Amino acid sequence: MKKTKLLLSIVLMLGLWLPLGSANVHAATTFKDISVNHRGYNEIMYLATGSIVSGSLDGRFLPSNVVTRAQAAAMIGRALELNGEQRKTEFKDVGSGNFASGYIQSAVDKKILSGYGAGIFRPDAVVNRGEMAVMISKAFGYEFGGSLSGAANALMSRGIAQGMSNGSFGADYQLTRLDFSIFLARAINYKLRVNPSVLFQNELFVTANSLNVRSGPSAQYSNIATLVKGESVQTAYKVGNWIYIKSGSKEGFVHSSYVSTSVNTPSPTPPSQESPLASKTIVIDPGHGGKDSGAVGFGLYEKTAVLDTALKVRDLLKQTPFDVQLTRDKDVFIELPDRVAFANKLNADIFVSIHANAATSSATGTETYYYSAAATNTRTTESKKLASAIQARLVEAWNLRDRGVKNAGYIVIKQTEMPAVLAELGFITNADDNAKLKSPAWRQKAADAIYLGILDYYKGNGYDVTKLYNIVNK
Ligand SMILES: [Zn+2]
């Protein structure tokens, strides 16, 4: 048993964690109260790498603490990359001020968690082992027959949990942070399980030119291999939008957007003499300009970083049949309503605004906004699709924290009449993000990502943009 554990640690250190030391900015934290010999070390560090768990302000993990329903919702929500933006919920006892309000509502929407009726959720109630087994079974799609014992069996049969020394599952025992971390990490990565084994049963093909295989199900985990377009992968299971795959000796997580049952998703658009893309105008909107410098950090102006990025996106789109128009191509001030009028007058097909974020120095990451009108309409749906496509590519390119796709009523995305998004590349006020915003090479990567996101969006809508992917990196 000890030997197995030691071997497993070595395999994990070599296979999963070695690349973290150098390039990855999200290198795993350490906790004062979790030594390398701690029985939950591997699992806790695995979750910490993906920012699924974090420690106390004084650097402890507090493994013996109990887990509340709100904390469980947040951990599962982060693992599945659910929308964690704090917001109003359907529960009287979970206000938008609750740190987990977003995760609670998202998990309830996905039927991973439920309330107690009459608008009560009990966010501060302590979770027991049986409830945890049900949550994990629902979150990871295990068939468990709806009962506590079924959920316990679902976890035990997979080597995620073991029974207590008396042979029972201990469903009524309070769950500790240590146990929850161990179970969650094992559910995510089968290599952490007791006697790890998993069935690879379905075949899919890589549809992206280059696809990262990661050690965990988010862009915060390091790349451990790369696949190329057309490569066949065997799939085991899904974690949120990520799939655990194997291809030869390569094994790990890939984003589900870039694998499909066929290499080339057939285009429903019939080929014609003139490209159907030629009639589509894409408006790129670099934020701020002139007297409005936007956010400032480390001597860098937002207006400068986003203009250069936008010009690079334009240079890429100019090599395609698309018609590309910029709201500004130099350092001038333009009112927000004038940017909106510009796009509406052109009858633009899509609108992409580029910005950089600002907050405290610790805030980091990439986020993309769209405007969700009260009534669901085509533009809302398409805006969200476009935002998701660009966000995924930006996160892939810059490897910053994935802050997700969010709703907001910014004028340029609210008053424009076409699918419209606003991308916040990173935080100009954060040292790491700022370094990327400042660097022409990293701006090129952001421009490539926005361009690829736009292609992904059109591809998703059935347009044949296959050849246009090659413009990047030429
Ligand atoms: Zn801005």
UniProtKB/TrEMBL annotation:
The enzyme class is: hydrolase
Provide a Gene Ontology MF annotation, just one: N-acetylmuramoyl-L-alanine amidase activity
**Which spans are transmembrane here?**
none
Coiled-coil boundaries: none
Q: Where in this chain does the record put each SLH domain?
A: 27-90, 91-150
InterPro entries in the cross-refs: MurNAc-LAA_cat, N-acetylmuramoyl_amidase_3, SH3-like_bac-type, SLH_dom
Enzyme Commission code: 3.5.1.28
The leader peptide range reads 1-27
Q: Where is the SH3b domain?
A: 201-263
Going by the UniProt record, its keywords in alphabetical order are:
Cell wall biogenesis/degradation, Hydrolase, Signal
Query: What protein is this chain from?
Result: N-acetylmuramoyl-L-alanine amidase
Q: Which organism is it from?
A: Peribacillus huizhouensis
